[in-house]
Amino acid sequence: MPTPPRPPVPLDLRPTIARPAPERRSPPVVAPTRNPFKRYWRAVSDADESWGQRIFVAVGVPLALGLGAAGLAVGAFLIYAWSLLPETPDAYALARATRSQPTIVYDVRGERLTQFEPAFREWVPLDSIPVHLVDALIATEDRAFYDHSGVDLRRTVGAIWNTVRGRREGGSTITQQLARNLFPEEIGNAGTVERKTKEAMAARAIERENTKREILEAYLNTVPFLYNAHGVEMAARTYFGTHAPDLTVTQSAMLVAMLKGPNLYNPVRHPEAATARRDLVLRLMAAQGKIDPVAADSFRAEPLGVDLQPQPSTYSAAPHFTAAVRRELDEWATARGYDVDRDGLVVRTTLDLTMQRAAEAAVAERATRLQRTADAQWGRGVPRRALDAALRTTTAYARARDAGADAEAALATVRDDAALVDSTIGVVRRVEAALVAIQPETGAVRAYVGSRDFGVDEYDHAGVALRQPGSTFKAFVYAGALQRGYAPEDTLGGGSAEVELDDGTTWRPAGGSTRGTLADALAFSKNAATARLTQEVGAHRVALVARRMGVTSDLDVVPSIGLGTSPVTLLEMVSAYGTIANDGLRREPRLITRIETASGTVLDSFGGTGNQALTRRDARNLLDMLRGVVERGTGRPLREMGATGDLAGKTGTTQDYADGWFIAMRPGLAVGAWVGFNDQRVTFRSKQTGEGSRTALPVVGDFLLRVQDRLPDVSFPPPPGRYQALDIDPDGDSLLVDEPSVADVTPDDYEWAFGEDPSDPAPIDAPEVVRPVEEKPDLRQLPPSSRRIGWGGDGQRADPPTEAPAPTRNPNNRGGMTAEEMIERAKEDG
């Protein structure tokens, strides 16, 4: 039966009422913030991503950015560190520095003269340093010393971070401090990132090349303290009057306390701060079990016990000589890659310390006497220009200029300071002197005194100062005359000397007539005769002869050259006279014989061949003429002083007695002295007190009296045509020579006389010598046309011509040589 249909659903005819949409609530209002992390988190929280995505964004992005930034920072720092490598000491330099030893300089007999090092210290092995000193150092400065490899990363990063923030902080390990102590210029002391980086790199290099014990030993021997003390040995002497092995616990703690800041914790000037810091070191030692706490309390109760004994700077038995040695040694070391201050070289020199002491005593004694003369002559004054020049070098003048005063106002200010003026007058009026002694056969410098007192005047008047030599230069004029064919007994004829200059004027030198023999003219130092002879010989030849004989300074080729108007050094003049004493064979002045390692390996020996500057005949004739100076001429006071032996020499005096010279020769020795003032406007004020025979000659004489017993008792070979005196044997069997000739004495005899081993002949070769700084001559003391003749338009000295013009015939030539023959003779002589 079919299912009946469902009745239709009645339509709801009521009006449809729309339901309101659910209310959308707006996010809560949140106060703004400047914190970048909070702002970032809010942005992530408000995103539509899932919570997993939100966490990834919130954590991953900052992490990636942080890692990227860190990588960039590390990379930038590595690049920065790489850029500092060329300026940072490498492992080789550090290894040399940690094992550095000073260079020791010895005299000819092995006596110590001085040592060269960056600072005055004495090395002490670690085994000789008290254990409690090492414990105090590690407990205070670097507790992790045995655990790190040169750098304590935590402390270093913290120090760099604080440095960037402007807060200076320590953090350097003992190894880093050692690097800074060894290379203060390369690494520096400023609290900068650059210094910290260099320090760390250098410390790593030190640790790779050295053991911990070696690092401790190097540190304790190089760490600087005050009062010129470097290393614990010098510090022990300076502050406690003891030695490093004898330091007590409290003394060791005091020295370690100073490392934090030597000035701040100076036990002499700041005892309270020093005591507090020392007590802290003792507490740290007790805390780390290095000393018993009860003992630490008793140690803290002890006084500092400081006994200040400041140590002198590096001592030198011959300061000017060793300074000259240092100049040569620096040149040698630079060319060969050695470090003079650290490589422990051994330098053997030519100096005879016994002779050096005699030379210093002679200079001091005679200069003191001359000072009394100068003081009496000048009273309380000196030339105004000389005083003003000296005042301009004072610190007070410099301060006035820095304050804005002009030159005149600053000078007026210091002139008003009576105490300063008085002390400056004393400096200006101070008599200075120098002495050099050379062994002619080898060129070895046996004595070298550069000033009256190195502690007062360090300027080297022996090898650096250029002064006019006066009549000592006449020897080269007469040497040139002998080369031209003159003989000592030749005469120049009467009359005065007249030299026509290029400007048409005539120069008439004072100093007697030209009458007499050449030997007399030299013996009595006749200026007119020498000037005329210079005219005959030629100024150019005089300059060439002087240069070949050993004068290395530039010379003014002027008519007055023979009277000694061209400045030279004492060292080169004595060397040139040594050429005369050595039969005309020139040897360059020699300071160093050889250089060795500390173990005795010879690195270099100094030598070279000499040159025959004069023929033997001319040298012996010239020597005989100079012998007349001492026996009957201006040098006769040398005999009156009691000097013995076969002597020859020459006096010299410059205009207004500004310079006094005397150079003497005897077998085995050439010695010369200069006396004067630093400012040439200050002079001795009379002939009786200012001539070289009264100033420099007594210095040489005093020296010879002190050493003549050590010199060979021989005589120079006689000049050509003369013979030694002979005594007839009473038995008539033989002839006895009055005294031995220098020609019969071997070099070994000379070496023995000067203290060397006769079985070890001295090297006769000569090294290159450091040349003195050039200075212009005093043009006021030259004849009128000298300014034009001796100097070019650009103000440079004119070098002497390499070839001399043909000599004219000498009317007094007894040998009858023609002009052509004389030309050939000149060529043969060079």
Concise summary:
The protein has 830 residues and is of the alpha+beta class. The chain has 31 helices and 16 strands. Among the domains are: 36-85, no CATH class; 118-300, Penicillin binding protein transpeptidase fold (Orthogonal Bundle); 382-427; 433-469 and 567-768, Beta-lactamase, CATH 3.40.710.10.
What can you see in these coordinates?
With 830 residues, this protein is an alpha+beta fold. Among the domains are: 36-85, no CATH class; 118-300, Orthogonal Bundle (Penicillin binding protein transpeptidase fold), CATH 1.10.3810; 382-427; 433-469 and 567-768, Beta-lactamase (3-Layer(aba) Sandwich), CATH 3.40.710. It is built from 31 helices and 16 strands. A five-stranded mixed sheet has the order 2-1-3-9-10, with helices on one face. α3 (91-98) packs across α8 (193-209), α15 (353-378) packs antiparallel against α28 and α20 (474-483) packs across α23 (539-549). The longest helix has 34 residues, at 51-84. It starts with 35 loop residues before the first helix and ends with a helix.
Main attributes?
single chain, 830 residues, alpha+beta, five-stranded mixed beta sheet, five-stranded antiparallel beta sheet, disordered C terminus
Query: What is the global morphology?
Result: elongated
Residue share in β-strands:
5-15%
Q: Which CATH architecture of the domain at 433-469 and 567-768 would you pick? A: 3-Layer(aba) Sandwich
Please provide the count of β strands. 16
Mean pLDDT: 79
Which ranges are low-confidence, i.e. pLDDT below 50, for 5 or more consecutive residues?
Answer: 80-84, 723-830
Which structural class is indicated by helix and strand composition? alpha+beta
Radius of gyration, in Å, reads 41 Å
The CATH class of the domain at 433-469 and 567-768: Alpha Beta
Q: What is the fold-level CATH name, i.e. the topology of the domain at 433-469 and 567-768?
A: Beta-lactamase
The CATH homologous superfamily of the domain at 433-469 and 567-768 is called DD-peptidase/beta-lactamase superfamily
Helix amount, in percent?
Answer: 40-55%
C-alpha end-to-end distance: 164 Å
Strand order of the largest sheet: 2-1-3-9-10
